[in-house]
Design goal:
This protein has 414 residues and is α+β, with helices and mostly antiparallel strands. It is built from nine helices and 14 strands. The longest helix has 17 residues. The radius of gyration is 22 Å and the shape is globular.
């Protein structure tokens, strides 16, 4: 691939991939009762070509959000952030002076979730490497998740409760940082929980730690309710399961709710237990109830944002493994925390720290003063702080050495 232009290779592969994923080349329209539908117009995606007079080394030794010059690495085309009547994919490929390149992608989340997106981008990469079709054929089949007739809400959906916010907004002077959890950090957290919770997952441990530390850092009044909403993959919870190749949204929010006082006063295991129990509610009946709720309430329904935080576990969506022909990416993950205008979302994804250790990284937005308190609270969670370091839209970077960088092959450290 040494003599090939990544811009042309990736652009051509995208056009070929959209033949199979043709809804991505269309536009969303709003129908009766605000129902969204795809108009398969074939208008295509929006693709931006750029060149930067910098090397990858100038981005620093360790790549993680926030990224310098991010808004230049994904040009915000006017009107492109709308839900309807705009391209569903915005792609920018930036060539670097060292011979590497950066691929940034913004996609419309109403079309696909993390696993569907991974399937799409893997197919795209296969086409770039010479395939004539994706190895996994895309499946639309959105009718599989339709509401019942008549719809019937059978579960308690605290993630959609309408809560009045009587306090001033905390979304001022926001800063973003990323934090890394290595294997020793997970071991340290697991030592803090009782034996009957030892079966819990790494997700449960990190989420509970994040929830408690964030609540303390935000200094929320003890009698106020706080929500930790977990995005749970529903793909294996249907009978029969969703077919291989299904690339639509297949998840639901689940809300663990307690008072700020109870969360902060109780031992760490209290938060772990709440999250573990609420994940156990994710069954087919719950998902069907969510679909029925959507139909009965319509698109005016939105999840609770007041004193809420959302986490999404994307460690299994391994974007670092994506290979467009130049090998694995040096970094592959989200570009920043938040979702749209709501900053209270963090994404967990796999990464390496500066020492080459594999672990979980997550970016987070907080007011500047709360961020300092959050970092201190994280450290107090651990019996040893040796391994925990505050490391000060999807983002993939390849480092292909050119004339300015002859140090060796693609750097595989984060």
């Amino acid at each position: 691939m040494a003599e090939k232009d990544p811009v042309e290779v990736i652009r051509q592969a995208l056009s070929q991939t959209l033949v199979f994923y043709y809804p991505f080349a269309g536009r969303l329209r709003e129908g009766p009762h605000r129902k969204l539908m795809v108009d398969c117009t074939g208008e295509g995606a929006m693709f931006i070509e750029a060149d930067a007079d910098v090397t990858l080394a100038q981005f620093g030794d360790y790549l993680q959000p926030p990224f310098p010059c991010f808004h230049e690495l994904l040009y915000d085309v006017s009107g492109s952030q709308q839900i309807t009547n705009t391209p569903l994919l915005l792609v920018q490929v930036t060539r670097l002076k060292c011979g590497g390149f950066i691929l940034v992608i913004r996609f419309n989340h109403t079309m696909t979730d993390g696993f569907g997106y991974q399937q799409f981008i893997n197919g795209w990469a296969e086409m770039a490497r010479g395939a004539t079709k994706p190895s996994i054929a895309p499946v639309w089949r959105r009718e599989l998740l339709m509401a019942r007739d008549p719809p019937c809400i059978t579960c308690n959906h605290r993630e959609y409760e309408q809560v009045l916010d009587t306090l001033p907004s905390s979304n001022h002077n926001l800063v973003q940082r990323s934090f890394f959890f290595g294997s020793l950090d997970i071991v340290a957290l697991r030592k803090l929980i009782p034996k009957h919770l030892q079966h819990c997952t790494t997700f449960d441990l990190i989420t509970a730690c994040l929830w408690r530390c964030r609540t303390k850092a935000m200094q929320i009044e003890a009698d106020e309710d706080v929500r930790m909403m977990c995005i749970v993959n529903a793909r294996g919870r249907f009978n029969p399961q969703l077919p291989l190749g299904y690339y639509g949204n297949g998840f639901a929010y689940l809300a663990a709710v307690t008072s700020a006082g109870e969360l902060c006063r109780n031992p760490f295991g209290y938060a772990v237990d709440l999250i573990n129990k609420v994940k156990g509610e994710m069954k087919e009946e719950y998902l069907q109830s969510v679909a029925d709720l959507m139909v009965m309430k319509g698109r005016s329904l939105s999840f609770t944002t007041v004193r809420s935080f959302i986490v999404s576990y994307l460690a299994r969506v391994n974007l670092r493994a994506v290979d467009f022909g130049w090998g694995k990416a040096v970094y592959g993950g989200v570009a920043q925390a938040g979702a749209g205008s709501f900053p209270g979302v963090s994404y967990f994804f796999s990464a390496k720290n500066g020492k080459g250790e594999e672990g979980i990284i997550f970016p987070i937005f907080l007011p500047a003063e709360a961020m300092e308190r959050f970092a201190k609270e994280l450290i107090t969670c651990f019996a040893t702080k040796t391994n925990l370091k505050a490391l000060c839209n999807d983002f993939l970077i390849w480092d292909h050495p050119g004339e300015e960088d002859q140090a060796g092959p693609c750097k595989q450290t984060a």
